[in-house]
Every structure is written in structure tokens, then in C-alpha cells.
Amino acid sequence: MATITIGGQAHDVxxxxxxxxxxxxxxxxxxxxxxxPVEQASTAIRIVAAALKSTMPEMTxxxxxxxxxxxxxxxxxxxxxxxxxxxxxxxxxxxxxxxxTSTT
Length: 104
Hints:
mainly alpha, two-stranded antiparallel sheet, 4 helices, 2 strands
């Protein structure tokens, strides 16, 4: 199970079920082409919110955005890679999407 830190608090993220995969599919497909760190984080947040919907429905996109510190952006993107690996969408030998920490 993937773990994500939001606002300094760790949360376990279940393996994507079909409903979560379907809800996040457009974001999952777009993730590799994103280079802007805010766009990457926004996309990752939507994927995480979809994954958490079945176990933590209060963790909506808006709630995650309010709690997430900018310093947690790279870890959120790393957690999404873990989520996608656990769902079988990224192989263990495949490179992870590049993370940019600069907001300029």
C-alpha cells in the first residue's frame, strides 16, 4: 500500500479500484507530459483524491490542496508513482515521471 504525506500527516492509499482508475484516467495519462511543478502537483492531487475516495471520502481535491505544503509536492508525485505501480500501470523497471521542485 502506498503512503502519502499531506500536511505532515501520513495516509495509506489503497490500490486503485476501477472507479478510482476511471475517475483519474485522464490525469494518469497526462502525468508523463507535464513539466510545470504546480500542474504536476495538481494532477497528482486529483489522482490521490480519486484513490482515497473509497476509504477517506473527506480527502477531496479541495481538502488535499488546503492541507498540502508546497514542500510536499515532490513526495506527492512520488506517491502517485507508487500508486500507479501497485495498480500495475507502471512497471518496477520503468522510469518515474520527472519531478520539478522549482515554481519559477
